[in-house]
Amino acid sequence: LDIPDPDEIEYIRQHVEATVNSTVHLYCGSDVPTLFIWVFSRPGTERNEPLAYNYGQGSKLLALASTLGEISLLTNTSTLVIEGVSDEAEGVYTCQALYDMDEPPKVKFYYTQLHLQDEEERSKGSGFPPPSSD
Fold first, then answer.
1. How confident is the model at residue 127, as a pLDDT?
2. Which residues does the UniProt record annotate as the domain Immunoglobulin (predicted)?
3. Which class for 131: exposed (0-12), middle (13-18), buried (19 or more C-beta within 10 A)?
């Protein structure tokens, strides 16, 4: 397998907003890559922690994923789903995808910034008044 020149790697940046206990879908392209790995970086760190991967023998979830919510991969995709988003889930999720169907193979990096809104931010942005606290 020939890895393409770094100048030919495509970088896609995405932004997702969610609240604690919600569900989010983090996308890694519209086509299923030949190989992929999802990693997570907490705010203020440079450390990438692996969450899930598929090196051609089926998808695997790693232990860290459980601290972020209920993690799964949608069937026959590389989309990462987090149900019951935890307050530790804010950060950058990177999917490194390799597509071996073209000559030369294509590599894409999907950077998704997940921002957790608190209830007050969500209420302001929705056009609805904040819930009463009786």
1. 45
2. 13-117
3. exposed
- Other CB atoms closer than 10 Å to residue 80's CB: what's the count? 27
Give the pLDDT band of residue 99 (cuts 50, 70, 90).
confident
User: Hunting for tokens 């896609």 — which residue is that?
Assistant: 12
Using alpha carbons, select from 103, 97, 78, 93 the residue that is nearest to residue 35: 97
Tokens of 58: 């089926």
- Name which of 17-31, 40-54, 98-112 the model is least confident about: 98-112
Token pair 């879908």: residue = 25
Distance CA 35, CA 106 (A): 11
pLDDT digits (tens, 9 = 90+) for 1-16: 555 566 778 899 999 9
* Residues 75, 17, 111, 31, Cα dihedral to 10°: 30
**What is the spatial distance between Cα 121 and Cα 92, in angstroms, rounded to a whole number?**
20
